[in-house]
Amino acid sequence: MSLSDLIVKPHAWYGSGAGCPIALSSRVRLARNRSDCSFPRRAGEEECERIWNEAEPILRELASLKPAETAGYAELTEQERLMLFERHLISREHAAQARGSGVAIRTDEAVVIMVNEEDHFRLQAFGGGLCLRESWARVDSVERELERAVSFAFTPRWGYLTACPSNVGTGMRASVMLHLAGLVLMEEMGPVINGIQKIGLAVRGVWGEGTEASGNMFQISNQMTLGEREEEILALLEQVALELVDHERNARKRLLESRKTVLQDHVGRAYGILSHAHILSSKEALDLLSALRLGIDAGILPDVERKQVDELLLLSQPAHLQWREGRILSPAARDVARARLIRNELFSKRSG
Amino acid sequence: MSLSDLIVKPHAWYGSGAGCPIALSSRVRLARNRSDCSFPRRAGEEECERIWNEAEPILRELASLKPAETAGYAELTEQERLMLFERHLISREHAAQARGSGVAIRTDEAVVIMVNEEDHFRLQAFGGGLCLRESWARVDSVERELERAVSFAFTPRWGYLTACPSNVGTGMRASVMLHLAGLVLMEEMGPVINGIQKIGLAVRGVWGEGTEASGNMFQISNQMTLGEREEEILALLEQVALELVDHERNARKRLLESRKTVLQDHVGRAYGILSHAHILSSKEALDLLSALRLGIDAGILPDVERKQVDELLLLSQPAHLQWREGRILSPAARDVARARLIRNELFSKRSG
């Protein structure tokens, strides 16, 4: 599989779509399993390998996935799998797997299928901004096509069967990634998170379940997969996401009106540190780039382009960074390389 | 008294002298009291006022103080007294006094006499870098001159009598201010401080007794005033200060050799924040300007001049800042004004 086309730039769909730049991306995924094999965790390595070997030629031929790249994880280095994880295309757990697992990626990164993650198939559709319905339509058509070649585990009573009971039913999880830096700076995220959780949606950090909201990025997703129609779930999630985008716009407006100096200080410090630091951890880079992004959106940082910041958000991650440097780096060396990358990018822009 | 000539620039003697730029300044002071009056804290306000009124014309005529400015504290605003404190010319306690206290300042700020601080007279000589002997000679000649006009409290057994027993004897305290940013960054100040204390010298922060070492500025002074000759005290202090300057130079050399990236990061972040922040506390400004100074001395910050940083160290202090702004500011407004001052200074330099 050739990753080199992917990693030099953000996803093809990135940076556009409804609710941009506050809404970063949308994802809809379906969990599906073969009716004639054990779930991956129960199947042995050999059976998993057989499942992957049977799946790969089928996925390759799916019209809705073309043009696609496919790769068994035994063929990919750990670094390459981690890059796919950093691009949010596969889960951290999937990236940690090797023989018997694999992935199919439409080259625009708008459709990705994980094979033998927790379930045999995790069909995913991605898009920029708030685009749940389009993503749903896309993943739905992939699923219909795949269903012609594979017999899915399904019962009329439970719907689609999945390895984890939390996915049984529709097998669908939809999520929206939002950049809520204004609400965080106004210290208003606490009640917002409580409100979202009360209506049965989950709020997570940028890396999904169990992660902190680094860089003021929040992932909102449905919890329920059983007993509700996909369209209802998507409609609720979309409505909440739109409200959050509104809340965030409002918070930014109030920041500019009544706490402009605080905002300028927050953004200015981030710019100053990013353009002059020589050691930067992933976490600090993410937080500071988030502040920069807020400054650009608020119109108080005219020198920097959002596209540039979004690229750095992606390229400054460990695996991307090492790909770019052409070698494996110690964590300390990565922090130095990350600072250099960001410094050069921000400086070259300023003088350009 | 006209302060306007003083506050627009650092002290006339600042920025030169032996051991510069690590040794910032030297001070030698003598505590003296009149034999015919109670110590200031025992004397009432009226007696203090009489003492000041009698002292002022005498001080004005001292040849070793000419040209001098004198001012009773009833004539000065609190802001003006605080400016003298921020210039290290008077103590914080003296700045808090009003009627009955006063000061005489040679216009080059190399000789300053506080009247009715803890003692009737606190004679002080200042100089740039490491210049204890010259300062001692200067304050000694002021003292001899003053002695012709005033009868000092003195006994052959105890020497000069002072309000606090810790000053009895010579009444002399000598101190050197050192910028030990390299030793701090190498985390080696702990044992250095222990070593200094063991030989009977005191290590204090930039504001003297009981203060923290903000901005990596340390004041080394003698503890003993009784039973030792002035020359011996000064020789010991000078020797220790010279050793500290050497230690610091060595620490900076090692930083450059083995931890250059850490140093660049430390200095770069300080530069980035100072040139882009919109809110800066006194403490943070002091710490960051200290890092900048280290960067300049280490040759890794070619864009900024030490003189400029030293000016900002002085001018960014609360009373100086308010004098410059022409009005009293709330602490929050000072933090904004301070950030603006520093930002403008560092930026105007860069583009100039």
Point out poorly predicted stretches of chain A. none
CATH topology of the largest domain in chain A: Creatine Kinase, Chain A, domain 2
- What sort of overall outline of chain A do the alpha carbons produce when their principal axes are compared? globular
Secondary-structure element string of chain A: HEHEHHEEEHEEEHHEEHHHHHH
**Number of H/I helices of chain A:** 13
Briefly summarize what is shown.
The structure is a homodimer of 352-residue chains. The first copy, chain A, has 352 residues and is α+β, with helices and mostly antiparallel strands.
Can you put this structure into words, describing what you see?
Chain A has 352 residues and is an alpha+beta fold. Chain A has 2 domains: 3-251, Creatine Kinase, Chain A, domain 2 (2-Layer Sandwich); 260-351. Chain A has 13 helices and 10 strands. Chain A has helices at residues 4-7, 45-61, 78-86, 92-95, 132-147, 181-185, 189-198, 230-258, 260-276, 282-297, 306-315, 318-325, 331-351, and strands spanning 23-32, 68-72, 102-106, 111-115, 121-128, 154-155, 159-160, 172-179, 201-204, 217-222. The first copy, chain A, has an 8-stranded antiparallel β-sheet, covered by helices on one side. Chain A has a two-stranded antiparallel sheet with strand order 6-7. In chain A, a hairpin with a 3-residue loop joins strand 6 and strand 7 (159-160). The interface between A and B is medium-sized, with 17 and 17 residues.
